[in-house]
Design goal:
Helices cover 26% and strands 30% of the residues. The chain is of the alpha/beta class.
């Protein structure tokens, strides 16, 4: 059995769950690499990555390079004398980094590769209405998420699930996949499978303001999937025009009610208890929203303090 000396690379909460599992299974982590500190929020206070917070709390050797090709960083990385690198939600690595350890560098990705290569696989699986997803471990090569697959684990996506709950479940599943992969590496039992590029693949494009905007001319199920696929972060949004007022509204929770009606698409309907938007095949009832400059609130609570006219329209 080969004793592993691991360098772990990652940044967000998802990566913390995997790193924590590695530590709890008593693997030796000789170094942790994460994103450089950056200012965040209105006060522009310096914010540490979730992985940095974990590394500091557990007294792990920490590196935060801004340039992964920098000679000083490469030298520091070599001096850690790792024989394996594990990457979870980090960034693209230069060849000089991923080919350094004797046993290779593997990545945990939150999809069933080759589907959903890219930055936001959890979100896009829900946005596209998929009913299953999973996690994959693979050896890194010189492209993004294209390397030889070591193993994957599958799970179902329920019709009511949002990106937040799926993220948490895949973090647990990802931890299991990572530990299984580590055992295969140390026991020298890894058998890889090349990814199949012959099929038409779905991609996990980076999320931005444009692809998070609700298009009310779409059918109800597509809008519902977009909302849950972007909740709780970064959140779907739309513009509401109500006489002289304009509101940029984020949506965190909704239901789609299929129905036949005569309302124009985008008609914004509110009463004392509910907010709905008419779509071509029914209504999207908005359950949890965030008005400009406010915290997110239940629709009923918003209606206690805000009046919308019968002329309001969602765009």
């Amino acid at each position: 059995m080969k004793k592993l000396r691991i360098v772990f690379m990652g940044t967000p909460d998802f990566a913390v769950g995997i790193l924590d599992s590695i530590i709890k299974h008593n693997y030796e982590v000789v170094g942790v690499i994460t994103a450089a500190d950056k200012p965040a929020g209105r006060g522009q206070k310096i914010k540490y990555s979730a992985v940095k917070e974990y590394a500091l709390a557990h007294n792990l050797h920490l590196l935060q390079p801004t340039n992964l090709k920098d000679d000083n960083f490469i030298s520091e990385l070599k001096n850690l004398n790792a024989n394996l690198q594990v990457v979870v939600a980090f960034r693209m690595l230069p060849k000089v980094v991923w080919e350094m350890p004797e046993l290779g560098t593997f990545n945990l990705h939150a999809s069933l590769l080759p589907e959903y290569r890219g930055a936001a696989p959890i979100n896009w699986a829900i946005i596209n209405g998929d009913t299953k997803t999973g996690v994959t471990t693979f050896f890194i090569d010189d492209k993004i998420d294209t390397g030889a697959i070591i193993l994957n684990k599958e799970t179902e996506i329920s019709f009511s699930e949002n990106a937040g709950s799926l993220h948490d479940r895949l973090m647990v599943l990802g931890a299991e996949a990572t530990i299984e992969t580590l055992k295969q590496v140390e026991n020298k039992t890894v058998k890889t499978t090349l990814q199949n590029d012959a099929v038409q693949l779905k991609t996990a494009h980076k999320l931005n303001k444009d692809n998070c905007k609700i298009n009310w001319t779409n059918n109800g199920i597509s809008i519902y999937n977009l909302i849950r696929g972007l909740s709780p972060y970064p959140a779907a949004w739309f513009m509401l025009y109500d006489q002289e007022k304009e509101y940029n509204i984020k949506v965190y929770d909704a239901v789609w009610n299929e129905a036949t009606h005569s309302y124009a698409t985008g008609t914004f309907l509110s009463d004392k208890n509910s907010i709905k938007v008419a779509v071509k095949d029914g209504f999207i009832e908005l359950l949890e929203l965030q008005m400009p400059g406010k915290k997110k609130m239940k629709a009923k609570d918003i209606l206690n303090g805000t009046h919308f006219s019968e002329h309001a329209i969602a765009r």
